[in-house]
Amino acid sequence: MAAKQYNLFRYFISRRMKNNAIPMVDICSVTGLGSSEIMVRRFSEYLGEHTNLCHLHRHTFYHLLFFTRGAGTHTIDFEHFPVHRNQIYFMVPGQVHVWQFDDAPEGFIVNFSPSFFESFLLRPDYLETFPFFDGVARIIDLPPSAGVEGQLEELLNHSPGRPDVLRVLLLRLFQTVETYVKPVPRLPVGHYNYLILKNLRKLIDQHFLTLHRPSEYARMLYITPNHLNALCKEHLGLQAGELIRSRIALEAKRLLINFGMSISEIAYALHFNDNSYFTKFFKKQTGLTPEEFRKQHQ
């Protein structure tokens, strides 16, 4: 295919991706109070007003939900979790999720924008130091003695006209929940290797469509590919190439549930020039062919 024709084809594929994209929910559309930075609600009321959010969607904001009652399934980035009392989960902007409840759920929901803490904290990456804001699907089961329900009740009843108090209460909640997260070895924040791995994840998110080799990311990070792989293996338990392939597979899943795009169009959108190679790649990553994955989510 000539370069001009190929680029034109890519353009139309990108348009199809946008037209069939998973709905992106902005915080202004769910606060209902004119606020563009934070919303704290009882979950039953929120769900009653936003029934469309029972369908697959993603957010431009941070999101947490604590269940005081409920049963069913919650799916985050295509990982399924059973819903039950005293369970809390956190999501970062861009993650895809959907609920399927077996009975009427209750609890507390908090949505806040990425800018909510910007003027309050000296370190803009402070939220990333909490293990549940790393972009990995994670559900945390809490004992009643944790006191999280009481803290959320206090957040709910506090005046939205005093946002700094809301920020303090929310940070206290994060610190409480963190004590119940199973500790894992982590690099000190600000450590040189911590910054490398943090920047690697950001670069992969930005370039995974076009850059597939660890050496390309190592070059942007000004280190050798061997050094990059050693860091990933030591601190993440994965090779750098596995991180890249995992991100491509996640995007493939997100596109496959957009039924307006064919498998071939999705393969080209992800820069696989050979449809059979895309199928082979996807099955190796997920254990399913693209067609089988799509049928599961029909």
List the helices and strands and how they pair.
Elements: H1 3-19, E1 24-25, H2 28-31, E2 38-42, H3 43-49, E3 57-59, E4 62-69, E5 72-76, E6 79-83, E7 87-91, E8 96-101, E9 106-112, E10 139-141, H4 148-157, H5 163-178, H6 192-207, H7 214-221, H8 225-236, H9 240-256, H10 263-269, H11 275-286, H12 290-296
Helix pairs in contact: 1-10, 4-5, 7-8, 9-11
Overview of this structure, please?
There is one protein chain. With 298 residues, the protein is α+β, with helices and mostly antiparallel strands. The chain contains 12 helices and 10 strands. The protein has helices at 3-19, 28-31, 43-49, 148-157, 163-178, 192-207, 214-221, 225-236, 240-256, 263-269, 275-286, 290-296; strands spanning 24-25, 38-42, 57-59, 62-69, 72-76, 79-83, 87-91, 96-101, 106-112, 139-141. Strands 1-3-8-5-6 form a 5-stranded mixed beta sheet, with no helix packed on it. Strands 2-9-4-7-10 form a 5-stranded antiparallel beta sheet. Strand 5 and strand 6 (79-83) form a beta hairpin. The protein is globular and about 55 Å long. The two termini are 33 Å apart. Mean pLDDT is 85; it is low at 1-13 and 16-20.
